[in-house]
Amino acid sequence: MHRPLESLCGLRQGAAGGWRWRPISPRSIFQCVLPALLLVLTTATSSRAVTLKEYQQRVQAALGSLDLIREGFEGVSQDQRMALIALNVERAREALPQTIEVETDGEIVVADNAWLDEGLREFSKAPRTEANKALLQSILDRLSALAERIDETEKLSAGNGTKSELRQRLATILARPEYARAAQDKTAWERFKEWLVRVLRNLFPRRSERVPSGRSPFTIIAQVLVVALAVGGCAYALSIFLPQVLRRRGPKKKKPKIEPRIVLGERVEPEQSAADLLAAAEALARAGDLRGAIRKGYIALLIELADRKVFSLEQHKTNRDYLRAVQYSERLRPHMATLTDSFERHWYGLTNPDVNDWVAFRSGFNAAVGAT
């Protein structure tokens, strides 16, 4: 479902019928700006390819500027000579940028002039040295040969050559080692930066003054835009997927705190098990407290049966309530009744237990657990 443009870009209608701005989310900004940016880049790229004739004129212009440098600018001061050399080097770069699209009869070939840019950069470091004079002559020779081959190709286009023949011939010329670096030597990142630099040059035809580092301002702008687009894309992806991940995970549920259990008035801590209570009962029996041992053993029995889901423990329940809870268990009820009777006689009654009573209770405990 498409959103209205005024809503996407932050406008909304007030109660009185007028329009006012509302806060814009990063996602809305990205959706609003990106299509326009892509449209501008696509339009600029598709409309700036030069014809074969124009490319030939550019080569001739570069040749003319560099030939003036070769002649030496006699009769001027040293400062003026250096300024004229820098001016004509810049004019040669403007005429033949690092990459340029050449169109011939509807076919597009990308000319890679990086060799010229690298050569002129090296020449500009010390233009008056003998080595760089030789470098300049080598550049002029290459450009002259390139101009001759382009002239041959242009004559072929005026004749009966087919589109594929023309494109193949031009591509063969531009792909020669003296005019272009091998495509496999470039990474995808380098090719993308060159494409973006070419787009920016087409958007802004007049080149500004070169920065001291030797890199073109367009190259710097291209790198900044690439980083900005990458960061914006990551932020956009996070704004979409991160909330979904967080909602899926949800807040961590706190484990409910386990309260102590109260069984027949005795407090049983959460970490205490039936085995712990039975061991405590055995210790009481060895110490001579048989009455306390039977009570502790009976509570251990109730904890064990509750852990086995026979019944639930409640603070208000009595020993008779627990006995009634197993009245329909034919196997467990007889053992439970015997143990309950022993507990009542020795804890609530006046009968003092002896060792035989504890041994009988312990045996009944094991039988009751085995009957569950």
Description of the molecule:
- With 372 residues, the protein is mainly alpha-helical.
- It folds into two domains: 27-237, no CATH class; 261-370, no CATH class.
- 63% of the residues lie in helices and 7% in strands.
- It is built from 14 helices and seven strands.
- The protein has helices at 5-8, 26-46, 52-71, 78-95, 114-125, 130-158, 163-174, 188-203, 217-249, 274-286, 290-307, 319-324, 332-348, 355-370; strands at residues 11-13, 19-21, 50-51, 99-104, 107-112, 261-263, 266-268.
- It has a three-stranded mixed sheet, with helices on both faces. The chain has a two-stranded antiparallel sheet with strand order 1-2.
- Helix 5 runs antiparallel to helix 6 (130-158), helix 8 (188-203) packs across helix 9 (217-249) and helix 11 packs antiparallel against helix 13.
Summary keywords:
single chain; 372 residues; three-stranded mixed beta sheet
Q: Helical residue percent?
A: 55-70%
- Count up the helices: 14
- Multimeric state: single chain
The helix-strand sequence is HEEHEHHEEHHHHHEEHHHHH
The profile of the biggest β sheet is:
3 strands, mixed
Number of domains: 2
